[in-house]
Write a structure and sequence with these properties.
With 439 residues, this protein is of the alpha/beta class. It folds into two domains: 249 residues, nicotinate phosphoribosyltransferase; 171 residues, Aldolase class I (TIM Barrel). 41% of the residues lie in helices and 19% in strands. It has 17 helices and 19 strands. The longest helix is centred in the first third of the chain and has 25 residues.
Length: 439
């Protein structure tokens, strides 16, 4: 799933070729982090670590790939032969997946020979950026939905097959209860949920027959779509099915005024003795729409969230970077305006207040005395995981704890105020030294 080795940027290969020719193979330290958060985000829920480690353990150049590079890529045989033996042999440090982070705090530190650390940049950013983007939006949905069920409905509007799968995984990290994407259920063990399409109803001459046929074919946990024609008439049909011994688990409303529609349907169901039938709402939902429905006390038991979530419609990218912080034992620093980096191997220390909320984050050099709980841990040594991959349920439980630790100002949907980490004096001094030595 995590792609061929050629799923990278061309400049990674041209740099590798140059590094090989020039003998640049000493240890490099790269860190992946967000330079800044979008205006709509007060935090990031970092997701994708396990998939990133899968990639690092498995990345290889096949004979077909190196043959293509020889003939079409413009690279010589010596370089292509060298690529044939490529393996990632480095060490990786990261906060546990499902950790809340802010700007300038590393999501990942890679320590490896320079060519290895360089080549993996593009795919690591690709995997971690997207899942963090979606998980952060999904967490906002989770924060306003209360105990209501949340289901990822976004596959058909996701930007490709892998995006659909990784979005489902990111939603599960953020606390979603399931997905409609079947392959995500198989691959990641995420519970599957599904309803029916309008086309099933339209394929029948009468809606009541369509409902009856569907209930016959899928006894047990039937969810019927009500708004193909007349939503209230469909609700009355559900009541009749119930009375006729065809249990219906839930109904789905996908259009119109969802709050008013849910109230009207709830009244019909309750009056007909179908109080146990749940109501699921869908249709261009996001955290703001869910919050409005919850505030309106709409009798909705579950939300199917799709297009706006899987594309993170309001904040479709993060300003994240993967930068060299040390090479061959020497701190390195980029000084570009607006994109300057802090050099050295860094750790993030977190302090909580008496209520378990984040009181302060400090970004310090790894060698400095601790000033809180260190977030980055060793997750890969010598190109192999230091422990087995964590189940998604464990990651989701950790994410829930992290989200509860957010200050209210960072967690709010509108005009959030992210925690601003303190940059230690030692890092600032190291930056000044690196600047002086660079001239």
């Amino acid at each position: 799933m995590y792609g061929p080795a050629l799923l990278t940027d061309l400049y990674q290969l041209t740099m590798l070729d140059a590094y090989r020719r020039l003998g640049f193979g000493a240890t490099a330290v790269f860190e992946l982090y967000a330079r800044r958060l979008p205006a709509e985000r007060g935090y990031l829920l970092v997701a994708g670590l396990e998939t990133a480690l899968d990639f690092l353990e498995s990345v290889r150049f096949t004979a077909a790939e190196t043959a293509w590079l020889r003939t079409a890529g413009g690279f010589d045989a010596a370089f292509c032969d060298w690529l044939s033996g490529f393996r990632f042999t480095g060490d990786v440090y990261a906060p546990p997946e499902g950790t809340v982070l802010f700007a300038d705090e590393p999501w990942l530190r890679v320590v490896a020979p320079l060519p290895e650390a360089q080549l993996v940049e593009s795919r690591l950013m690709n995997l971690l950026h997207f899942q963090t983007l979606v998980a952060s939006k999904a967490a906002r949905c989770r924060s306003v939905a209360g105990g209501r069920q949340l289901i990822d409905f976004g596959m058909r509007r996701a930007h490709g097959a892998e995006a659909a799968l990784l979005a489902a995984r990111a939603c599960a990290v953020a606390g979603f209860d399931g997905t409609a994407t079947v392959e995500a259920g198989r691959r990641f063990g995420i519970p599957l949920f599904g309803t029916m399409a309008h086309s099933f109803v339209q394929a029948h001459d009468r809606e009541c027959v369509a409902f009856d046929h569907y209930a016959q074919c899928h006894p047990g946990r039937v969810t019927l779509l009500l708004d193909t024609y007349d939503t209230l008439a469909a609700a009355h049909t559900v009541v009749r099915l119930h009375r006729a011994g065809r249990p219906v688990h839930a109904v789905r409303i996908d259009s119109g005024d969802l709050a008013a529609g849910a109230r009207a349907v709830r009244d019909v169901l309750d009056a007909g003795g179908s109080r146990d039938v749940r109501i699921l709402a869908s249709g261009n939902l996001d955290e703001h729409a869910i919050a409005a429905l919850v505030d309106a006390r709409a009798p909705i038991d579950a939300f199917g969230v799709g297009s706006r979530l899987d594309t993170s419609a309001d904040a479709p990218y993060l300003d994240c970077a993967y930068k060299l912080q040390e090479y061959d034992g020497v701190p390195r620093r980029k000084r570009s305006p607006g994109k300057a980096t802090w050099p050295g191997r860094k750790q993030v220390y977190r302090r909580l207040d008496a209520d378990g909320r984040i009181a302060a984050d400090v970004v310090a050099l790894e060698s400095e005395p601790p000033v809180g709980t260190p977030l980055l841990q060793s997750v890969m040594r010598g190109g192999r995981r230091v422990r087995p991959a964590e189940p998604l349920g464990v990651v989701a439980a950790r994410a829930a704890v992290n989200l509860r630790s957010l200050p209210a100002s960072a967690a709010r949907l509108v005009n959030p105020e992210p925690v601003v980490p303190q940059i230690s004096g030692a890092i600032r001094d190291l930056a000044a030294t690196a600047d002086a030595e660079a001239g």
